[in-house]
Amino acid sequence: MAESSLLMFSARDLLATPSHEGLAYFVEKLFKPHETYEYQNAQALYKFCVVNFSNCLTQMLLKVYLHSPDDLIRFRAISLLSEALTGLRNRSFELSPVALDVIKPLLVSCLTMPEAKKPDTKMLRRIVSCVARNAMKLDPHGWDELGDCMLTLVNTDPVRAFNVFLDLPQLHVGFINRFFKHLIEEIEDTFKTCHFVPEETNPCVFSPRKGSLLLSLQVSGGFLQKIYYQKKRTRSSTT
């Protein structure tokens, strides 16, 4: 009982603040050697926060990613959040509507940060998937800000848009239509520019952006199936 009360007070001190700096320092402790006192205390508090304050923890970890000057801390923050939200989703936990109103714009800001690294995108796409599933339950028509964000990414960073798209749940066709046509055009243009043939026999020269997109297409086995079903839904909605 005393330990639980102590964890409660510690969690409130950690999360009930507008600044991300305390949590950024706390994230660093979670990656100390496991035998250390710092790690063990931090891990106990973190697990308590995941179970009891997941809405607030999600918001604060996204703020760490947005505002911390340390790239490693930023990546660790979204890595922790990706793992936590995936675990909560598997236990049928849902973020609160009030928290979602704060989390969704924060997450869109994370997605549109310039020069995001590939490992960051991998973690963010899992977080987007979890949040989108929650958002769909409240509004089956989708998540307007994410649709606008995806449209922007298709034009500015199609590789990131493609990777985020891969983990999206089945959303309302109106949401998909915002960016889907542009994404397909970018992918089809990449296919036309450079076919899947051995590099030494491939005469085409393509930009780094198209090269990255091509590589993403090659390693994403389930993509064509997802494209097929999304196109089918799009066509059926117009007939």
TrEMBL record:
It comes from the Eukaryota. Pfam families: DUF577. Residues 100-192 form the DUF577 domain. InterPro entries: ARM-type_fold (IPR016024), DUF577 (IPR007598). SUPFAM superfamilies: ARM repeat. This is DUF577 domain-containing protein.
